[in-house]
């Protein structure tokens, strides 16, 4: 009977570790890489053009942001 709470704690620890393995890369991607790829702080037109040219990457960034914040 004593192995059940320990097994439950181990499952919870593994789930927590997996969640952090997803949150950390998606967080770095959405907070570190994407803004430097798209945003031009001096010209909004250039920012819009960057988003239009790499629409799939921008959409992937939105998906990563949602995943990151839902899991965090």
UniProtKB/TrEMBL annotation:
Keywords: Membrane, Transmembrane, Transmembrane helix. The keyword Transmembrane helix applies. The chain crosses the membrane at residues 12-34. Pfam families: DUF4386. This is DUF4386 domain-containing protein. It comes from Chitinophaga caeni.
């Amino acid at each position: 009977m004593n192995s059940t709470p320990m097994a439950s704690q181990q499952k919870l620890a593994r789930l927590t570790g997996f969640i952090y393995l997803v949150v950390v890369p998606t967080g770095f991607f959405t907070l570190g890489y994407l803004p430097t790829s798209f945003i031009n702080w001096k010209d909004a037109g250039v920012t819009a053009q960057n988003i239009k040219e790499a629409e799939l990457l921008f959409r992937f960034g939105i998906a990563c942001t949602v995943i990151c914040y839902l899991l965090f």
